[in-house]
Amino acid sequence: MPDPRPDSGPAALELDVLAQWERDDTFRKSLDIRDGAPHFVFYEGPPTANGKPGIHHVMARTVKDLFCRYKTMQGFRVDRKAGWDTHGLPVEIEVEKQLGLKGRDAVEAYGLEKFNAACRESVLKYTDLWDALTVRMGYWVDLENPYVTFETGYMESVWNLLKRISERTDANGESLLTRGLRIQWYSPANGTVLSSHEVSLGYKEVQDTSATVRFPVEGEPGTSFLAWTTTPWTLPANAALAVNPKTTYAKVRLIQPEQDPTKTSPLPRGEGQGEGETPDTTEYVWIAETLLGKLKAEGEIVERKSGTDLVGTVYVPPYHLAGDADDLYGLAEALAHGAAHVWRVVAADYVTTEDGTGIVHTAPAFGMDDWMTGHKEGLPVFNPINPDGSFKDGFPLVGGLDFKEADRPILRDLKDRGLLYREDSFVHNYPHDWRRG
Questions:
Q1: Cα–Cα distance for residue pair 317/328, rounded to 1 Å
Q2: The model's pTM
Q3: Rounded CA separation 42/27 (Å)
Q4: DSSP sequence for 65-96
Q5: How far apart are CA 259 and CA 310, in angstroms?
Q6: Which tens digit of pLDDT belongs to each residue from 350-394?
Q7: How does DSSP classify residue 48?
Q8: What is the DSSP-derived secondary structure letter of residue 141?
């Protein structure tokens, strides 16, 4: 790094201090004089050195250094070891750009061994710049013996820790290492989760389809909950309907439902009728009272209830698929063991009346809010989607289709069965897998 030393001023003073610290080996002495003292353990979150450092790194490291020096002054020994994060998508993305590859399939075709070698070569590309910045800003950390996450010893230490945690048990004799589910942004193109930064790269303004769907109330013929969704492909994974406990909902008797065949389909009638009887075409729907204007139909309110009063109401899902647990994770097991009734109304504070119907279709496999609600309510997680983004082969109606390609056949099926109350298109920003195109 060129020496920017002026003859005088703050910069010259900084350089003089740095030179004195180097001559006297001050950082090492600050550790040696605390030999035998209690340790304050500081875990450095290592940077990825295949990118250049920026001013935000200076800011973060200043705060880190402040705490370490403070704890040293309090009498603790604070060992600080530099490190390099050499795993994960940031490295792979950089190398894919260099090699002109796009997506997991292209990487596998290129060869994993060659790709890993290219990653190792790329990952420490800017270590000299990082070291120079570290020294220039006076950040005290051991640069001579860094830990590097691609080194075998480091990886084995992580596995060893996991093994030791799995062997330890709690007061009930259960292992401290448990397996669970967590909802994350996911890339079908490379078969791994995406960071929020990567998701921000993939937002596009698109015209999409929304659907207002009937969820018939069990035991009340002609009465349905109306729920709005912008992701029809998630309807086969429905596990609950969510309402806001503080919202007032109205049961409306529809007088003149809209009959535009391109937008709505009527609720089917005729089941259980005697020969020659006139079918009962009266339809009742539940919707947030403030959203009645969105029904596109005249109606008469016959009953009002708070969301709290609706909680626990059982309904008939659009897809009642109690098949193989390999196709719908957890469904067969949940039903066999009498889990909390799956298809019922639950409470969720995040439900608003700004859009839709004030009643939210909930699929715990798709969306953090949905998953948290399902976890709280003890609902199974139905997931008929493969890691590549397609529905599982043999899945009814949409088996083998890409998840977005499934919207249209699902909507056609709902319309044919009288469950599609209304279909609309709207323009919105939607996250895309930027690696998929």
A1: 15
A2: 0.71
A3: 15
A4: HHHHHHHHHTT-B---EEEE---SHHHHHHHH
A5: 29
A6: 999 988 899 999 999 898 999 999 989 988 888 889 888 899 888
A7: P
A8: -
